[in-house]
Please model this.
Amino acid sequence: MPKQSHIIVSLTEEKLPAVIDLIIAQERRFNTLDQRLRAPRSREQIQAMLDQQQDAALPLLVLDEDAQVRAYLEPSCWNLAADDELLAFFTRRNGTVRHLTLPAPTEPDAYTVAKTVIDIVTEYWQQQQTNSEILRWPYCDRWLEPLLQERGFLLDSELAFTPAQHVQSYLTMPQLPHGYKIRLTQPEDEQRLLDLFEEELRFHEPYTPFVHTSPAVIQAFRQRLIQQWEDQSIDAGASQIIVVEHDRNVVALAEIKLYQMEEDEEPDFLPVGRYGLINNMSVCQQARGQGIGSMLTAAIMHIFRTMSLNGYILWYNPANPLSSQFWARRGFQPVWRTYQRLSTKVNNAITPFL
Model:
């Protein structure tokens, strides 16, 4: 039999130094490509992360024919409850990969290693009977995208970021046209907010196979509204919903909250710090094109103005012709990409787990 060029093995103590080297090299490469990404961690920090993960995950290595470490990964599953609002964007059981570490694309075997990784996680996900699979990779590093597309992954969403100093022009509340009012939401807005939320989801549906509405998703949003009205302030971690009212009718909403990026965040989207998260923005169809989105953006930044933030983040669907243009014009640039595929059987031969 011909010699197999790459094999999959479990992480061992002997291979830890080489895994740390590989992770540091990837973090350095990412940060060189995009300095908004987290700076490389120290060997001690990565060692502590690996020590912790060995007890809770399935850490695997890809070795070449000389037994050199070429990739590190932790395939896993992410489950959502039947009443989770995220079911509007994902499925009940989602396959994912933690700490995906690959060679630089300039390495001769980079594509082969990446292909081996995708095939082995596909087998793992099939064994776990996932409904869909998710991979996240930095926007600045696009060499992996053709392989993901070949394996059935589609671009799902992008995490966009703008630094705090880029929003100075939004810190002054705009002069509102006659009949418009911006205020915090109230319990009596509930049905109108539900209608706006459903309208937004249905607007997305033609642009992606992954966004869909359902009675369960709408009910989950209703529960979050109730919790938002009962919870503490945004400074204490609660969401806050702002609405635009025109002639006593709510025509738009924006949901915001504070997001703390931790040291052990996975994926490590951005440097450790506190960010203003725009979790949702929706303008009803009849009110679009009148500057309401700009009004809401100004109101959001006005609320965040007194907080010490490292910047602002949001997720958007790049296939959506409205959001992709709107946020780019306001200085939000993509940092990470999420790829997703609905579960499917792959006919390629896959190396078995060792």
Summary: Helices lie at 16-33, 43-53, 110-127, 145-150, 190-204, 215-230, 292-304, 323-329. The longest helix spans residues 16-33. The radius of gyration is 22 Å.
